[in-house]
Amino acid sequence: MNRTRLFLASDQMWPSAINATYPGASFVARARISATGRELAPAFAGSVADDLWGVLVETDRVPAGAMPISVWTDAGHEFDAHVLGGALLNGDPQSVYMASRYWELAPAYIQQLREAVLKLGLDSADEEPRDDGALGQATAPQG
Q1: In the prediction, which pLDDT does 143 show?
Q2: Alpha carbon of 140 to those of 7, 36, 39, 114: distances in Å?
Q3: pTM, two decimal places
Q4: What residues are paired with 83 via a beta bridge?
Q5: How many CB atoms are located within 10 Å of the residue 132 CB?
Q6: 66 and 9 in contact (C-beta within 8 Å)?
Q7: 8 Å CB contact between 18 and 133
Q8: 25-48: pLDDT as tens digits
Q9: What is the C-alpha separation between 66 and 85, in angstroms, rounded?
């Protein structure tokens, strides 16, 4: 079975959402891409600078319209992956922020998302984010 890597940076990066959309997906790493020149959801377009963080998962299928991309993990490794077409950080802004906290993405990045959520007049929720889904761990990634 051919597995591919998918970079997720939206409200769909909750484990339960990943499991529902990509059954059998495995977590690979937290990852980042350059935000420069990327289409971002309007809620975050003025707040995210430099790096845009998300999660890298392995899945059995590449969604229609996904585009090839290079990502860098928080450990500094570069991987080929795919990213969904359209704006990154799309979906419910508060959910994007909470999912980023759940995955413990880069603190400076989470702060940028928090500031965007606050500008929208949304609660930045001080409680720990929780999700009922769990992703399997991918085997040692081949870079």
Answers
A1: 46
A2: 17, 30, 31, 33
A3: 0.84
A4: 7, 67
A5: 8
A6: no
A7: yes
A8: 999 999 999 999 899 999 999 899
A9: 5
Residue partners of 76: CB distance under 8 A and separation at least 6: none
Q: Which residue matches tokens 């500031």?
A: 115
Q: Calculate ∠ Cα 133-61-40, nearest 5°.
A: 75
d(CA 66, CA 91) in angstroms, rounded, equals: 17
Phi, psi of 3 (to 5 degrees): -105, 150
d(CA 110, CA 74): 14
Residue reference for tokens 């809620």: 43
- Read off the tokens for 33: 């891409």
One-letter amino acid of 9: A
Strand partners, 19: none
Region at 30 (left for phi over 0; alpha for psi -120 to 50; beta for the rest): beta
